[in-house]
Design a protein that fits this description.
There is one protein chain. With about 375 residues, the protein is mostly beta strands. About 0% of the residues lie in helices and about 45% in strands. Strands 1, 25, 26, 27, 28 and 29 form a six-stranded mixed sheet that branches. Strands 2, 3, 4, 5 and 34 form a five-stranded antiparallel sheet that branches. The N terminus is likely disordered.
Length: about 375
Amino acid sequence: MSRPLPLLAAALVAGALFGASGVSARPAATFVYLHSRNDANIHGYRINTRGQLTVLPGFPVATGDPGGSAGGQCHTLVYSPKKKLLLASGNSGISSFTVNRDGSLTRRATGVGATKIIGLAMLDMGAKTYVFGAAFEDDQLLGYSVSAAGVLTPLPANPIAVGDGPAGVIAHKGMLFANSINDYRISSFKVASNGTLRAAPGGPITAKVNDLSYVYNAQITPNGKFLYSGDNGNQVIHGFKINARNAQLTRISGAPFSTPGLASTGSSLSNQSIGYFYQRNLATANVQAVRRDGSGRLTRTGTLQDVGMGVDAGITDPTGKLLILGDDETDTIKTYKVNTSNGMLTAVDFENAPLDGLNAVIYVKR
């Protein structure tokens, strides 16, 4: 392992809302959870449709497994809508919690796996749920089946080799993708109903401009059509089309897409055409709106917008109408209303919290 994870980096992120409705059902509540990995805490908020935040009682909740910052959003916190479980990574493995109806958490397991895990990816497949964790120092993925009680059972195929320095992993509808930062690769897999992984045709794809490239995470748009990965060494975003049949990635025409003026880039994208690139930089704090067309191509729209802080992690709700950004230097989480016509942001609310090594922001509808 030759390249540690960056302290000043942003990653590719997007959000998803889940939930069910019924005639007599209680209206679903939406929560936002943040994972500050250095001090092993989960911060929780209720968020309304206008983007206003309310701190949940009893938070922050300790994971019990300090992990050190992974340097930007590495999906160190994931949620299973089917099992109502929240999982967090740490230096000793994976910890699990049940998300209760009021947003509170009930601990189920701590540090499963006995090895350092960074990124996590969760898949609900029928009655089964799987989680895959990136063992950065071992160049492997570790997979587990997850019970409703939050018990993690290792999959028979463990461990799974994925290249030099896997950091971020992301999953979507029976597909799994893993970034390995030291060889600039994104590995793609189709996930069978029993959790077995089948590598995509053609093997891993390379996301590299030059030796300055630093591509450690990816995000799939909620519709599952495109995958994007920010290159923190070159101020560009790599973009790929996803073949849903076999998880194969094909580079989008015109990619990688340039993001001039952003010292360290990442993005938040939804199913809507408007999304955002952002930077995590101590001196300046800019966000750039982008527009995505039907082919996946990205173009800048409007000017850089100053959000008054660096950005460690961000998420856009699936409607594309709200953006949430977090920064562990100013210990701030901010929400913004999105103008879906021109991408301009209007500040809605903010909260201060001790975000020591912020690595994840996720939506949960319960």
